[in-house]
Amino acid sequence: MKLRTNHLWIAALFLTFRCTSEMEENLPEPGESGQEAIHPPVETNPANTNYAPAFAGQTRVNGVKTVTPLISVVLTSTLTSPWGITPMPDGRLLITQKTGTMRIVTPTGTVGNPITGLPAVNSTGQGGLLGLCLDPQFSINKMVYWVFSENATGGGTVTAVAKGKLSTDESTIENAIVIYRATPSSAAGNLHYGGRILFDSTGNLMVSSGERSDLSTRPLAQSVSAAIGKILRITKDGQPATGNPTFTGTGALPELYSIGHRNPQGIAIHPVTGDLWQSEHGPKGGDEINRVTAGANYGWPTITYGVEYSGATIGGGIQQQAGMQQPVYYWDPVISPSGMTFYKGNNVPEWQNNLFIGSLSGMHIVRLVIKDNKVTGEERLLASENQRFRDVTQGTDGNLYAVTDGGRLYKISKQ
Q1: Which pLDDT score is estimated for 35?
Q2: pTM of the predicted model, to two decimals?
Q3: Side by side, which strands form the sheet with 374-381?
Q4: Which residues are identified as catalytic?
Q5: Where are the beta strands (DSSP E) in 7-100?
């Protein structure tokens, strides 16, 4: 276990002194009127496009810095491509590994044996064993739900959802069964599976599915007869949940909750409003944070703040269209946002209801301050670690835990 003192608290010591410049003399001190000191935007690199945001604060918002002294600990670095992490009722953490097994890790970093018994995954490319969640009655029924990339009958792969019971000795998943497949499958490439899953307040499952990346499948994000490029809402048995929105169009699927997504690798529910929020990989530029509402269309690939990796314009090169939702926030250049969580603990009071997002290509953890459904501040945590942060969650102890593609599990807490 390696101890690392977050460099952010050192800088935070200076925030209690007013700077002498005329500009900074007028900024609020930390905690003054319930606000944090304002800093320049954290992103300083040039954008890939000259697209203008739809409203102020939609991108490159002012920076903020955590004042509370923090400490980060590497609990273990022996995981194999961890992808999803969720707290267990007793404080331990259940983690998926991309290659197809789960592991239980204690808060002190002891890693359990691989949990087997799951359906075979196709771990090629961006595929594998992906996000997971526990049944709200897990303490009683030991049920686990997860998303994975599955070889489809007839060829190609599909984003699938499965469930099973964690055995008494915690060595295997018993009676694992696939409850849902986001069709159509694709043989064009093993990319853009989405892959996050959580329970909503009604006891139904919210699942994110990617549009599979290929130019042939990309338009299906707008098709109501396809389950790819969507947020889905299903029951524990994989059926369309009661109360889902009704989309118009031939063959509209009743499990659809929202449409027009590219590769949504993060979903989280706001602890106060109960709203569903989502992170989404853009192309070259245009990574998004969305507040997802039932029946809404989030635009991909018709509108986007990004361009093709070649630099070519996507579609008509437009960023706004009637009937399509704007992202609450976007990044250009990209940071590759993945798993995310809202902070609802008391250990770091200034983090209350803030959104934390794992950043892959950006190699940091994003902290977004949100007020009235708008982003008012952005901070980058653990940026010096040089790690691709895949998922982040809040433990039962009120601390943050994050996993990286390199196999690390971090604990981030008040010093």
Answers
A1: 59
A2: 0.92
A3: 337-342, 355-359, 364-371, 374-381
A4: 192
A5: 70-76, 82-87, 93-97
